[in-house]
Amino acid sequence: MARDRGNSDDYTRPVRRILIGGMVLICLALFLFWRIDSPRAERIRAQIVDAVVPGFGWALVPVTKAAGIIENFQSYTRIYEQNQELRRELQQMKAWKEAALQLEQENAKLLDLNKVRLDPALTFITGVVLADSGSPFRQSVLLNVGARDGIQNGWATTDGLGLVGRVSGVGETSARVILLNDTNSRIPVTIQPSGQRSILAGDNSSLPLLDFLEAPEAVRPGDRVISSGDGGVFPAGQLVGQVVLGNDRLLRVRLAADYERLEFLRVLRSHSSEVITDPGSLIAPARLPGPPENGNG
Amino acid sequence: MVDPVTRRQWGFRALFLALAAAMMFVQILPFRIDNPRWPGPDTLTLLAFAWVMRRPDYAPAFLVVAVTLFTDILFMRPIGLWAALVLLGYEFLRRRQPFSRDLPFLVEWMMVAAVLLGMTVTNALVLAIFLVDQPVLGLTFIQLIISIAAYPVVVAISRFALGVRKVTPGEVAAMGHRI
Hints:
The structure holds 2 protein chains of 2 kinds. By secondary structure, chain A is an alpha+beta fold.
């Protein structure tokens, strides 16, 4: 080799070592900062992502469109089968629709008879999915709505079919949604016919796990899973999916939301419900009326 | 005026940055094509290592650490830890780069694999010590194996498509300074 080792490095090596060491230290300090003050670090992260990813938007749109075109083109090749399938489904749907209409009327009647008051505050904002987490270990997507549109941390998102995740990290014009199958996602749910309460815990697989189930024998595959709203952070009554039995003999949930095709997501505005704090007190007038003077005045 | 060597160097640095940006861009595209059970290789780290084994001046440390730190932020990883590890691995390889110039590719591959293994284990250990939730360990190691398997591909692309070759002694003399 034409180079005598060390000679030319003599000046640069110590400086270089200090520089590299400094950079490593800065990185580790950042890691410590992230570990110690996680909310602030995550806010900074949200701001940086907010500044960067919408800038990619112009590039993301053609790529997603092209993929959509390819997907549609593929579907042309099996359009006949699809047509037949759709017809069959339509037949079934008509029957269901009839049943649903009747049930709806019946339900409305019963609600009216019982004077039930439904929660009127559940309106939604729809956002477009900009990007996903980019890491195989994190299941999250980025929406193009943010603090500017009034999005707040903790709000639920659905794709119209079922619950998708919760907002975690809000930038000015973007918001990150942690999907239900992320390892950090824990959602209180109710399993429908049996009324069992459980926690839906994501574990990075497509079928999240039902955790802390009191009586697993009361739950059968095929049962409906809806959000329970326990703890007051999540709206109740949103469809999550169906119970299935995983390969590992654990009860898991097949999500109703179409995770393969997350394009538009609804962020449900949930307002903190009133909290009842005191156990209730005796209802009485503020002070006892004095004894009547001169009874028949 | 800028001499051709410097121009070439900065051209390749810009190319590195562009490749990194393209990789990030592809990774955050909102498709879920790949099965989550099979994570893809960590192409950015592989690229940095493949280049540092050939031409460390094309992928300087500050560029590598800046890009990795940015991906830490973008990909929701613990901020800074992976960047620090990549920098340490980078320095380790860079130290040995002059000695490995004449070594066969297999040895280089093994060395990179060992460094990646060390980085992954350290990452998992540090996260465990700091009580950070981390992905399933099996998944992390599957990614490590896929990354190691993908290293020759990254090297082949860098070498034959982009022209990042090891320096020959003649070139060193022509440039007249350390590279």
